[in-house]
Amino acid sequence: MSIVSNPSGKLTACHAANSWPGIASWKLTPLWCLFVVVGAVARADDAAEPVDVIVVVGAPGTDEFGEAFGQWSQTWKATCQRAGLTMQLIGPAGSDRENPDRENPDRDQLQAALKRSASTDSVRPLWLILIGHGTWDGASADFNLVGPDVNAKELNTWLDPIRRPLVIANCTSSSGPFVNRLSSHNRVIVTATKSGSEQNFARFGEYFAAAFSAADADLDHDDSVSVREAFLKAAVDVDRFYKEQGRLATEHALLEDNDDRKGSSLALVLGKANSKEEAKVDGELASRFSIPISDGGPQLTDEQLALRDELESKLRDLRDRFSDADPEQLRQHALPILLDLAKLYAEEPKKGKGVFNGLDTDETIPSGNRNRP
Q1: Max intra-chain CA distance, the chain
Q2: How far is the C-alpha of 109 from the C-alpha of 57, rounded, in Å?
Q3: CB 3.0 to 4.6 Å from 5: which of 17, 86, 148, 358, for a disulfide?
Q4: In terms of pLDDT, which residue wins out, 354 or 175?
Q5: CA 117: distance to chain centroid?
Q6: Backbone phi, then psi, for 32, in 5-degree steps?
Q7: Cα separation of 231 and 225, whole Å?
Q8: What is the distance between the alpha carbons of residues 250 and 267, in angstroms, rounded to a whole number?
Q9: What is the pTM of this model?
Q10: Cα–Cα distance, 293 to 229 (Å, whole number)
């Protein structure tokens, strides 16, 4: 079974031809043969279309890990269905393993999917979610796939031709080195660990996937969860897990989005720690890419997204220009821009993709669900 997008933008399950019951007894008339050929061409055309979200499930190692990784990928599948995003699932994840490149090794499937995405020029990001295990030998950071692995430097060469924004979440152990190897303009990088030396099983992927459906992750109350908000929610939940278990934390997530190849910890993004050498704290770009938390969430067109980017940029410029001035001056200059943003939200909702930019506001981290494992 493969996952494709129907005209409404939702994900649809399609069974492969060889799984149809009784096909051997069907009479292959000329008309039926024509139908099969035309259908095959249509499926090939559909397979050539780039997707919004690529979820890659790596080699599980054990059944226990395989079950966990499968659940995390299903969480992403449900999120994409709700938001109207097309998703390709690569890796050992049941029937969903059948995708346009299913006959090729997982490594080749990933490379082919990224190559197709390079043909798309959009203000909307491509989301690449890596679920599984990672390794680090002091020089090479690898994502463990079924079959040949892929290392961070190789992955970066595959990503280079892609012109649209990128959101890359490596939810594996030893994922920290992916920060400086993938960091680039217009990219948001999230890793489960701060270094390659954190080699124990990482739980961050579970909480990160769940955050995009969690109301308490929506800190600015815009009915969506941005990458920044999901990072904060997941990192806090991971920290809580280790504290409640009375265990030493073996994973510390990083967020990188300003192309300085350093990454920011939870404490830095929250403003509870100072950056070294006055390095800029990450999170501004990550706050722009969001997924609605409900079917009725606001959805903006590409044109509306571009306008919001422009208005938000003006607000940031004003904030920097009047940082040391009378707050009243900032309010007077910012009011017209804020009114334009309000008008943008007040427009008749447009049906479109479910990813849009999100404003960043003063915020605190909610307590969350303390009963989660």
Answers
A1: 82
A2: 12
A3: 86
A4: 175
A5: 15
A6: -65, -40
A7: 10
A8: 16
A9: 0.76
A10: 12
Query: 2-16+30-292: which CATH topology?
Result: Rossmann fold (3.40.50)
CA distance 4 to 49: 10
Separation of alpha carbons 99 and 115, rounded Å? 15
Query: Who contacts 372 (Cβ-Cβ below 8 Å, separation ≥6)?
Result: 237, 241
pLDDT digits (tens, 9 = 90+) for 53-100: 999 999 999 999 999 999 999 999 999 999 999 999 999 864 444 466
Beta carbons within 10 angstroms of residue 38's beta carbon: 10
> Exposed, middle or buried by CB within 10 Å (0-12, 13-18, 19+), for 1?
middle
3 state DSSP class of 86: coil
| Burial of 23 per CB tally in 10 Å (0-12, 13-18, 19+) | exposed
- Report CA-CA distances (Å) from 172 to 93, 139, 241: 17, 17, 17
Task: Detail the DSSP E strand segments found in 161-205.
Answer: 166-170, 187-191
The two tokens of residue 115 are 């190559």
Q: Which of 191, 185, 144, 145 is nearest to 168 (CA)?
A: 191
Are 309 and 288 contacting, i.e. CB atoms less than 8 angstroms apart? yes
Closest CA to 88 of 144, 132, 126: 126
The Cα 45–Cα 179 span in angstroms is 35
**Confidence grade of residue 298 (pLDDT, cut at 50, 70, 90):** low
Bridge partner list, 2: 14
- The separation between CA 89 and the C-alpha centre of its own chain, rounded to angstroms, equals 13
Per the listing, tokens 């940029």 go with 313
- CA atoms of 232 and 238, how far apart (whole Å): 10
Burial (CB count <10 Å: 0-12, 13-18, 19+), residue 44:
exposed
Nearest to 303 by CA among 261, 268, 353: 353
Q: How many CA atoms lie within 13 A of 167 on its CB side?
A: 27
Instruction: Read off φ and ψ for residue 138, nearest 5 degrees.
Output: 95, -15
Residue where the block lists tokens 């997204």 = 305
108, with CB counted inside 10 A (0-12, 13-18, 19+), is middle
Q: Please report, for the chain, the start and end positions of each structural domain, with discontinuous segments joined by +.
A: 2-16+30-292, 302-346
